[in-house]
Structure formats: structure tokens, C-alpha cells
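Problem: given the chain below (244 residues), write out its structure.
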Amino acid sequence: MAENTSGQGGTAVVDEPARGPMVRVEDLRRSYGTGPAAVHALRGVSFEVPRGELVALKGRSGSGKTTLLNLVGGLDTPDGGRITVDGTDLSGLGETGLLDLRRDRIGFIFQSFGLIPILTAAENVGVPMRLRRTDPAERDERVALLLSLVGLGDHAAQRPGELSGGQQQRVAIARALANRPALLIADEPTGQLDADTGLAVMQLLRAVVRGEGVTALVATHDAQLLGLADRVLELGDGHIVEHA
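Solution.
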């Protein structure tokens, strides 16, 4: 077992071989509140996400999808169980280590896009690289490449308010790829888009997984979009109820 120290935030224990799954979740539990009023969002969830695949997570509202994504992304802490991402056991990370993981190895895509209104598309995509203090010339080159990848090379100077919803989500996808993450986590990324635009965005995610060599875990309730996934996991009452 090798150790990878991530600053003062703690030690990340790397115990998965490079050929192992990108995500491994074992007996994951998360509740909110106490006593009879407690809400048990996850009740012993276990699954794996193979490297290089797009895995869709489905389930009705309140089934625990967002809770699960937040835990895998290191945005929340489980009550029990174990999460391993790209060979790193999240329980071995302190706050600084989790911050490093989120910045360097995980890209997040949200339903609400999460773009900064006063920044241009190019500036929004460049934000993660600024936080990482990437060389400006390298940053500008990467931004141009990513905007071209998502079909927005001609919209670099436009601000979010000047873009359609689908274009904003494409900018958000480009931003999520800025620091070359190993894992993309997307929570209902097409939830605010019409059916045709949503399908185009999901097809883009499918192409990104293949072209960029990343792994994606995507929560969606759209049956048409589920058909683009390599595998579908269904959450119900805090459990994985179906593997497809």
C-alpha cells in the first residue's frame, strides 16, 4: 500500500491499482437529522464505476442521487462506508486533501450551470486553471482548445447572459475539463434544457468521455439520455435497486 501525502489536510491512502475502478463505493450510509425524524438518504450503497465509462444514476426525486454525488465528489462526509476515487480513499483525506482532490482530479457539472455572470466564456473556463496558477500561455491555449471541443470557439468573448442555456452548459462542461480531471460528476446537467438541447449536451458528454479519456458519473431522470450511458444504476429508498 502506497501513501500520497496531500499537504497539511491529511494523507491520502492510495490502495487501488491503476487498472482498478475509477470509483468504488462500499456500504455507504448517510442520514440527516436524528431520532424518528431522521431522513436516511443512503442505506448501505455499494457499486463501482469502471474507468473510461459514462455511468448514469437514475431515481425519483429524493432517492439520494445528489447526496451520493456529493459524497463521491468529496463535498460531504458519509456516516459510514468507504469511497475510493482514482485509487484514493477519501476517508484518509483532511479538508486540504479533499480540496486538492476536487481541484485536480474531479470536474463538476451542475444543473444551474454555475457560471460567473461578469466573466466571458473564456474567462469562466479559465477559472480552475487560475486557481491552480497555471502558466497564462498554457491556460489560454487550453481554454481555446476546450471551447473548440464544445463547439463554442466563436463565443469566447461572450458572457453567460449572452448565451443560450445549452451554450452555457457547454461552457460549464469545458470549465469542468480545464484541469484534466480523471472523473466528471454531473448532477442533472440537462435539467434546465429543452429535450433537443439536453440530448445534444448528453451526446457531448458521451463524446468527451471517449475523446478526453475521462470517466463520468451522471445523475439524470431522462430515459432518452439514459440510453447514451454505458451502464445505469438506479437508486431507490437509499439503496441501489438495479444495475443495467
